[in-house]
Design brief:
205 residues, alpha/beta, Rossmann fold, five-stranded parallel beta sheet, 5 strands, 50% helix, 11% strand, globular
């Protein structure tokens, strides 16, 4: 009884299939690892503006998530990280955000509202365009810890010099396994599909 040669088509196909499946499994694992690592970043490098991402797509309580992001933005402002806070999202939510920031001690003149969509790609495209119009290039981006990785790579693709400082890992912004899994799927989709549709808006990055 002869053994099937190693170089037989069946063996080659099985080997290729095994490698392919292994790589497919490693991609989401790598994305999850990137999300967890990025969530730990507290980059307080001085920038030109603090951008508060709209929490419409947040995994948990959106109102609580927004308040946590605004609170973190106010802390960064007080620390002198940037002289201006930009609030993104739909028009209906801005007045509440501005009042909350005023309660946190932020002067109304130092709050910019930029109407955007509710998805990461659309929001950061608008932010990048506004930065270009203002002659700015750097931004401190405040969002949930689990969302920081996707926001960072997207902002960088648009040409924004992005520095990540997520909101608290506790409360509505907690780094739960469900939130990480959802963001891992979204990050994989970005790498495999979305990134090829993202133009570089800001030059020099």
């Amino acid at each position: 009884m002869s053994l099937e040669p190693v170089t037989s088509p069946a063996r080659i196909f099985t080997f290729a299939l095994t490698v392919g499946v292994s790589l497919l499994l490693l991609i989401p694992i790598g994305a999850a690892a990137q999300i967890v690592l990025t969530s730990q970043i507290e980059d307080e490098t001085p920038t030109q503006v603090i951008v508060v991402m709209d929490p419409t797509g947040a995994w948990n309580n959106q109102k609580a998530a927004k308040n946590e992001r605004l609170e973190r933005a106010s802390e960064l402002y007080a620390a002198g990280v940037a002289p201006v806070i930009m609030v993104t999202g739909p028009q209906r939510a801005f007045e509440k955000s501005q009042k909350e920031l005023e309660k946190l001690g932020i002067p109304a003149n130092d709050v910019i509202y930029q109407p955007t969509g509710t998805d990461t790609l659309g929001t950061l495209a608008v932010v990048a365009t506004l930065l270009e119009d203002l002659g700015w290039s750097s931004a401190t981006i405040v969002t949930d810890p689990a969302h920081s990785a996707r926001a960072q790579v997207t902002a960088g693709k648009y040409g924004i010099d992005a520095h990540m400082t997520p909101s608290s890992v506790e409360g509505a912004s907690s780094l739960t396994s469900e939130y990480v899994a959802r963001e891992a799927i979204a990050l994989v989709r970005y790498y495999l599909y979305n990134q090829w549709q993202v133009p570089q808006i800001l030059s020099g990055q």
